């Protein structure tokens, strides 16, 4: 007999992997001088933010699909604004890296995401220094260095942009945990876009005026509406698929899916963009880094399971997980509450399912639940 919930879960995972890979490859194709030749990453990011914010506005204010949260000026100023600033920065630097380095090498550099998140968490007090985790971070860093050394088309500018974007993303994720959860604020995917996308657009407007507007004024590039509309639509669809995956899967499944997505993306990029050459040293270095990431994931999953209350029997845990999945899959019900339950089938780390194209991750930790505050170092 077919297990329909399980089939649906893996279908969501497949959609997430396809959309995540597709958005990254699409952005590379749009920005690359070799293909569509639209070398304005800030403009492309602003289009994404404007489209996402506009869709969220209509869903909340016009069609009333979901109700807006109680957002005070104090919460907006101290939480939404700084998180949006780092989110805009991570998108800006991450998309700019596509102009200089290949998608495959960018994915290899993204192995540094757990390293950046761990150290930012320690600095902000949301994580504790641990010897085993630190050794994993060293292993990941060594692998990335080897992979960078083996990169044929190594570009220091693109590498700096990508690493800076990773640091900004790590700060955003840590700030989400520190600020939003401290205020007890929970955001579903639509309200997340409603509040964060417009603010990110404003932050990007200043560097756009200084860096890209003068070049666009003299550029001969023509604006293709359907290209940019479909690109923004894919980014919006990625946001929703990310939420569905988080709501229906456990920590182990999500981590495996993230690793699988990276390998698929690296392979696809070498096919779609022939100039993206992968060397043996690239593969060796990335494999070493991946070993560190897998070991880190194992530690986080083990700690997450250990933090569960021993009094919970297996049937009780299954019942709780089923209730949460049912709630999470009904995201378009205006009467549903996103803070009723405190778990999602496993404890999640800030760097899981990390994708710089997805604004929903800015509210992901707060959505998972306030119970994570008690064991955020797990």
UniProtKB/TrEMBL annotation:
Keyword Iron-sulfur present in the record's keywords: the answer is no
Q: Which Pfam families match?
A: TPT (PF03151)
Localization per Swiss-Prot or TrEMBL: Membrane
Q: Quick one: where's region Disordered?
A: 328-378
- Species source reads Corchorus capsularis (Jute)
Q: GO cellular-component terms in the record?
A: membrane
Q: Give the Polar residues compositional bias ranges.
A: 360-378
Q: Which residues form the Sugar phosphate transporter domain?
A: 11-297
This protein's membrane topology, according to the annotation, is:
Multi-pass membrane protein
Is the keyword Transmembrane helix assigned to this protein? yes
* Protein name listed in UniProt: Putative sugar phosphate/phosphate translocator
TM ranges are 7-26, 38-63, 75-93, 99-121, 133-154, 160-180, 192-211, 223-245, 252-273, 279-299
Among InterPro entries, the record links this protein to: Sugar_P_trans_dom (IPR004853), TPT_transporter (IPR050186)
Q: What is its main location?
A: membrane
Keywords, in A-Z order: Membrane, Transmembrane, Transmembrane helix
């Amino acid at each position: 007999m077919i297990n329909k919930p399980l089939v649906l879960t893996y279908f969501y995972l497949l959609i997430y992997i396809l959309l995540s890979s597709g958005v990254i490859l699409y952005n590379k194709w749009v920005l690359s001088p070799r293909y569509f030749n639209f070398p304005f990453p800030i403009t492309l990011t602003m289009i994404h933010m404007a489209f996402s914010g506009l869709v969220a506005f209509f869903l909340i204010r016009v069609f009333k699909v979901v109700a807006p949260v109680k957002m005070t000026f104090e919460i907006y100023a101290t939480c939404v604004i700084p998180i949006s600033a780092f989110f805009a920065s991570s998108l800006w630097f991450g998309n700019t890296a596509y102009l200089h380095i290949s998608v495959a090498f960018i994915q290899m550099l993204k192995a540094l995401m757990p390293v950046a998140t761990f150290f930012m968490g320690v600095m902000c007090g949301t994580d504790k220094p641990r010897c085993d985790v630190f050794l994993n971070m060293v292993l990941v860093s060594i692998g990335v260095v080897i992979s960078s050394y083996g990169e044929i088309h190594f570009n220091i500018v693109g590498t700096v942009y990508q690493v800076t974007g990773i640091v900004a993303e790590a700060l955003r994720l840590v700030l989400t945990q520190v600020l939003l959860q401290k205020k007890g604020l929970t955001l579903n995917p639509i309200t997340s876009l409603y509040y964060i996308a417009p603010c990110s657009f404003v932050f990007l407007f200043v560097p756009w005026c200084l860096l890209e507007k003068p070049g666009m004024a003299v550029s001969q590039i023509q604006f293709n509406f359907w290209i940019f509309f479909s690109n923004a639509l894919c980014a919006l669809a990625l946001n929703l698929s990310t939420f569905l995956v988080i709501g229906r899967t456990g920590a182990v499944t999500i981590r495996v899916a993230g690793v699988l997505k990276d390998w698929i993306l690296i392979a696809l990029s070498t096919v779609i963009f022939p100039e993206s050459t992968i060397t043996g040293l690239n593969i060796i270095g990335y494999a070493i880094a991946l070993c560190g990431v897998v070991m880190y994931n194992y530690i986080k999953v083990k700690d997450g399971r250990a933090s569960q209350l021993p009094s919970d029997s297996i049937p009780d845990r299954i019942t709780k997980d089923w209730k949460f999945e049912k709630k999470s899959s009904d995201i378009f019900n205006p009467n549903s509450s996103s803070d009723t339950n405190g778990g999602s089938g496993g404890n999640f780390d800030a760097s899981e399912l990390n994708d710089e194209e997805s604004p929903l991750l800015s509210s992901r930790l707060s959505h998972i639940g306030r119970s994570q505050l008690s064991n955020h170092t797990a």
